[in-house]
Design a protein that fits this description.
22 helices; globular; single chain; about 525 residues; about 0% strand; binds 1,2,3,4,5,6-hexahydroxy-cyclohexane; mainly alpha
């Protein structure tokens, strides 16, 4: 049965109907604390333990690939811009370098928009499709014999990045028990940032090998192949299963997630399970009311709760990129070279390492402090870091980046220059740490804001806001530095942080520990 409806006969077959009917009779009782899945799960919760974490790790490989494929390009470009004589690809011009970098954001933008309809066929299938595309992209990039071939390869890999970035957080959100949801989603960002570190290390490893860019690209296919193997053991999202009438499978997945023994005769356990199923079923019912895509669009842009969800998640995703973090990720070697640091590649590895470390720290902080508070504390720190960096730049003899090959290092015989170079290094590191603690990962928890009926569509649009802003920053950063200078550029990013903070203060709700249905009710108020 895959028409999206749940027949009562199916429920009888599954043996759940009596329990559900019983629950329905007791609805009033359920409206108290039992209506809170979090509370209910505490009553009967065994330990979901390693199983849920393993699921997230398997799905998180898409995050690893996202990080790897977006970061490996900076090391590959260093080689492609200075190829050996025997190279079939002539040295890339600056315009070609920009295109090879940014084409990935464009295809990620396209595929994130298409990920909505694709994930309607199953979250697992969408993750599988992304993994296959990652492999195709890795192979086509590594065998490229021309600039056009490279561009096609980068385009393909971007399709995998975009689809994975939209579907995996949604899968994790739908699979996680309420009390672990934030943490498990942060784990996905930990994977993204780990992928970026791995990319820098592999880039560094192959930096002196002629045509080292080929293995750099090819290695991106390995985790994707592993993920395809692991996908056989991954369950489908219980929400998707219930939506498509597979109540029995959904029940057994939920039982494992919440650490409930399915065959247990324990009434509390059975009640808990049936309650979980019923609560998802409520969401599914609203899904079934919206069968056509146009009805979903109307609901997304027409219903108060959905409009708010879109504004919050899309706004946060846009802000995550417009605050300029990826400018550092992509161009920090260039900035540190301009500041005359001896080994700019290693210095920029410090950006990736700080990003990874503080994303890990936020894994612990988020459940304790809450996402809203963490954002409100960390975003002003980002602004402070940026303004301090601007202050450092203002004391350097030249604070303009005039293109990869034309950097003008500060006068190193002047000791104050190197002092201000360190001011910039420390303040940008501080900025990265503050970014990673909050805005670097919170936006990816967007799926929780959307009710089931418009979740895949809403998530897809919010993710597209991320990729379009990512593209804007990647394309304009060097131009801004060239035309306005580093001081103005960094002050501009600080102003964006302050505007973002005001938006968060006014609009970002505190959803910590709430189940998805409660969040829906909160946003519709
Ligand atoms: O959440 C991730 C993470 O912060 C990455 O480090 C960054 O490169 C991505 O653009 C972002 O979406």
């Amino acid at each position: 049965m895959s028409d999206g409806s749940i027949e009562m006969s199916t429920l009888h077959r599954e043996g759940l109907a009596p329990i559900l009917e019983d629950d329905a009779r007791d609805d009033d009782a359920l409206l108290g604390s039992e209506n809170d899945l979090e509370e209910a799960s505490k009553l009967v919760r065994g330990e979901p333990g390693i199983w849920v974490w393993l699921l997230v790790v398997s799905a998180g490989i898409s995050g690893l690939l996202f990080g790897y494929d977006t970061a490996i390009i900076s090391s590959a470009l260093l080689q492609l811009a200075n190829p050996p004589e025997s190279s079939p690809i002539p040295a890339l011009t600056v315009a070609e370098q920009s295109l090879v970098t940014s084409i990935t954001s464009i295809s990620a933008l396209i595929s994130s928009l298409c990920s909505g309809p694709i994930s309607e066929y199953g979250r697992k299938k969408a993750i599988l499709a992304a993994a296959i595309v990652f492999i195709l992209g890795a192979v086509s990039q590594s065998v490229a014999g021309s600039v056009q071939g490279l561009i096609v390869g980068r385009f393909i890999v971007g399709l995998g990045v975009g689809a994975g970035s939209a579907v995996v957080p949604m899968y994790i959100t739908e699979l996680s028990p309420a009390h672990l949801r934030s943490r498990l989603n942060t784990l996905n960002t930990v994977f993204i940032t780990l992928g970026q570190i791995v990319a820098y290390l592999i880039g560094y490893w192959y930096s002196h090998t002629p045509f080292g860019w080929r293995p750099m690209f090819l290695l991106g296919g390995v985790p994707a192949a592993i993920q395809i193997g692991l996908l056989f053991f991954l369950p489908e999202s219980p929400r998707w299963l219930i939506q498509h009438g597979y109540v029995e499978q959904a029940t057994s997945v939920l039982a494992r997630i919440y650490g409930i023994k399915q065959e247990a005769s324990n009434a509390a356990d059975k009640r808990m399970l049936s309650h979980l199923v019923r609560s998802i079923e409520r969401g599914v019912r609203s899904e079934n009311e919206l069968t056509s895509t146009s009805a979903k669009w109307r609901s997304l842009f027409g219903k108060r709760g959905n409009k708010r969800a879109l504004l919050i998640s899309g706004g946060l995703q846009g802000f995550q990129q417009l605050c300029g973090f990826n400018a550092l990720m992509y161009f920090s070697s260039l900035i540190y070279a301009m500041l005359n640091f001896k080994n700019p590649t290693l210095t920029s590895l410090s950006v990736a390492a700080t990003n990874f470390t503080f994303t890990l720290i936020s894994l612990i902080l988020i459940p304790k402090v809450g996402k809203r508070r963490l954002l409100l504390y960390s975003v002003p720190m980002m602004a402070l870091g940026l303004l301090t960096a601007a202050y450092g730049f203002s004391h350097l003899p030249s604070h303009e980046i005039t293109g990869a090959s034309k950097t003008e290092p500060p006068n190193t015989t002047d000791p104050s220059s190197s002092f201000y170079a360190y001011v910039i290094l420390f303040s940008t590191t501080f900025y990265v740490a503050s970014y990673a603690s909050g805005i670097g990962n919170v936006p990816w928890q967007q799926a929780e804001f959307f009710p089931m009926s418009v979740r895949s569509l809403g998530t897809a649009i919010a993710t597209a806001c991320n990729w379009s802003s990512n593209f804007i920053i990647g394309e304009t950063f060097l131009g801004l530095m060239e035309r306005m200078g580093a001081v103005t550029t960094f002050v501009l990013f600080a102003v964006i942080c302050i505007i973002g903070w005001v938006g968060i203060y006014l609009g970002y709700p505190d959803t910590e520990g709430m189940n998805l249905e409660e969040i829906e009710a909160l946003l519709s108020r």
